[in-house]
Amino acid sequence: MTMTLRPTDALLVIDMQVDFLPGGALPVAGGDAIIPGIHALAARFDHVILTQDWHSPNHISFASTHPGKQPFADTVQAPYGTQHLWPDHCIQGTPGAALHPDLDIPHTELILRKGFRRDIDSYSAFTENDQRTPTGLAGYLRERGLTRLFFVGLAYDFCVGFSALAAARLGFQSIVVEDLSRAVNLHGTVDATNTAFSAVGVQRISSAAFLIP
Ligand code: VGL
Ligand code: ZN
């Protein structure tokens, strides 16, 4: 299958930040290996949007905020439901929250920050984890007539997955470029992501679909 790009397409590059890459606070295995492929793909898009996980200190998603809780293993009950707990990561203004220095997409049009409210996490670039608070990204894309969205970046089973699912639910055509994303893979989270993608109509493709014939 070959993918022909349109002027109404956008590439969303999710959370390619120092803390999510090897050596960071919450490293996603192989996250650095996808950078060259993301560069090659971004060069083909007229419209590129980046996201940045951007947490307050003592964020609700940090295990350290909840005495006795362990990152990865434990959860807490937030007013909006179960919240996974993570190591401290992507704290506003710290070097770990910066976009990875190897990431080089000068024609990026928007960098969207998310997860900045202390009491609400936001895996999705569209809707925070309370499933109600919008980030404004849907309005931005609609106002600009960008209707078909391609997702790459980190992590496949959290921020990429939740963003692609939210986009599909909001009426965007939503496509994940699977080999340009990597998973945290906590405990069945990759299978759960793929099941949800099928249910909502998120398409999964390979970057090979973009090869110029
Ligand atoms: C992410 C866990 C916590 C992600 C962000 O970018 O997928 N995962 N915060
Ligand atoms: Zn986070």
Key features of this structure:
213 residues; alpha/beta; Rossmann fold; six-stranded parallel sheet; two-stranded antiparallel ribbon; 4 helices; 21% strand; binds pyrazine-2-carboxylic acid; binds zinc ion
Topology (elements, then pairings):
Layout: E1 9-14, H1 35-42, E2 48-53, E3 75-78, E4 81-84, E5 110-114, H2 137-143, E6 148-154, H3 156-169, E7 173-182, H4 189-200, E8 203-205
Parallel strand pairs: 1-2, 1-6, 2-5, 6-7, 7-8
Antiparallel strand pairs: 3-4
Pyrazine-2-carboxylic acid is lined by residues 15, 20, 53, 86, 154-155, 158-159.
Please tell me what the overall shape is.
globular
Task: Figure out the total of helices.
Answer: 4
How many separate domains make up the residues? 1
User: How would you spell out the order of helices and strands?
Assistant: EHEEEEHEHEHE
Rounded mean pLDDT is: 97
Q: Class by helix and strand content?
A: alpha/beta
CATH topology title: Rossmann fold
Cofactors, ions, other ligands: pyrazine-2-carboxylic acid, zinc ion
Question: Which assembly state applies to the chains in this document?
Answer: single chain
Q: Determine Rg (CA atoms, Å).
A: 16 Å
The low-confidence parts are: none
By DSSP, the count of extended strands is 8
The CATH class, by name, is Alpha Beta
Give the N-terminus to C-terminus distance in angstroms: 11 Å
Beta-strand level of the residues, as a percent range?
15-25%
The amount of helix comes to 10-25%
**CATH-assigned homologous superfamily:** Isochorismatase-like
Architecture, CATH level 2?
3-Layer(aba) Sandwich
